[in-house]
Amino acid sequence: MANWKTYKGQSPWEVEPITDKVIYNEGDRLTSISDVLWHPPGQGNPPVSFGHVPCGYWNRNYVPESSGIKIKFLITATGCVYITEDNTKWNKYPISQGGTVIWNGNIFCMRSNLISKISCNGIDWVAGSDNINETGWFAWSGFAFITVYGVDYSIPEGRALLSADGLSWTQREICDLSPNISGFYGIAWGDNKFVATGVKVSSGHTVRGALIYTSLDGITWTAQAVPSPGPIALWKPLYWNGSIFITWYGTGVLKSNDGENWTWHANVLPLEFAEMAWNGSVWCATRNGDQAYVSSDGLNWDTYALPYSITGVHIAWNGEYFYIIGTSTEGFRSTNGQIWETVLIDANKTDAFYDICGVK
């Protein structure tokens, strides 16, 4: 196992193996005090701490060139994360605060309670800037993370936060429709552009209509027409499956293949969903209750029974399984969204689950 040298540079921390880019895999462990990485005062934990090593080589931009990661799913909770490497057995690791999380192919990025964090192994996390107070969803474009702000009556303009590394964030204005208030909840990257969906409300809290904006860089945004008739608001997540953007309002579905031209399909959902996930062939959707919903086109849905009713639901796909979590100590998994089985996550769970992320 190679020794590591450390040095101080322009970044908060930088590490480099003495040998040429030695790759450490998950499961390797630091074995002596000489292996501990430099820990700058006031910067929080570095990407690896004593007892764990990175899943890859970390460069000056914080991004590992090779992950070697074995994680199948990661669940964030109030004061911990849960990780499974086989879709069945879950291990629990403490963190200061859980939140919404995504995997960009190299690192996990999590946002919660005004703090952003990154990790390559899901165990050791680095905290970033403290201005992440948005209430919308989260996306990765291939060059930047982005998240959006929901309705904030103290700030009329719609806003996004952009970050190349998941730690340092820059606020960008999507639109200013004063005196109305703009808020965004859905955000996705597809067809080489960001797409944000949201709502316009009056200062008196009256809904004024749905909003759709697109951007090539997350900095300059363009309004797109909302179909009429169509949704009066867009509060739900927005997804891209490789060819179609999809979101919904009530039991109506809004679809587009380019983020600019949209089609409204009224009254096609059996019920209003909470979240969806795409497995390459079908959408699987969930909501509070004892059912899952499956569709190949987002318009025609079949209903399937879950083992029992749960609330606070989230769903993800990891290339092998759909996984649904909620307030239960168990999760539900399925290869096709039709036949579901229970999997124990933590019999002694006391922390609320925030999110689940699949690693493909």
Walk me through this protein's architecture:
This protein is an all-beta fold. The chain has a domain of 68 residues. 0% of the residues lie in helices and 42% in strands. The chain is built from no helices and 30 strands. Strand 4 and strand 5 form a beta hairpin. It is globular, with a radius of gyration of 21 Å. It starts with a strand and ends with a strand.
Would you kindly provide a brief summary of this structure?
With 360 residues, the chain is an all-beta fold. The chain is built from no helices and 30 strands.
- Report the sheet-strand fraction: 35-45%
How would you describe the shape?
globular
Order of helices and strands: EEEEEEEEEEEEEEEEEEEEEEEEEEEEEE
Q: Which structural class best describes the helix and strand composition?
A: mainly beta
Can you give the mean pLDDT?
81
With strands numbered from the N-terminus, the spatial order across the biggest sheet is 5-4-3-30
User: Gyration radius, to the nearest Å?
Assistant: 21 Å
How is the biggest beta sheet arranged?
A: 4 strands, antiparallel
DSSP, total strands: 30
Count of helical stretches? 0
Low-confidence stretches: 1-68
Helical content (DSSP H or I, runs of 4+): under 10%
N-to-C span:
28 Å
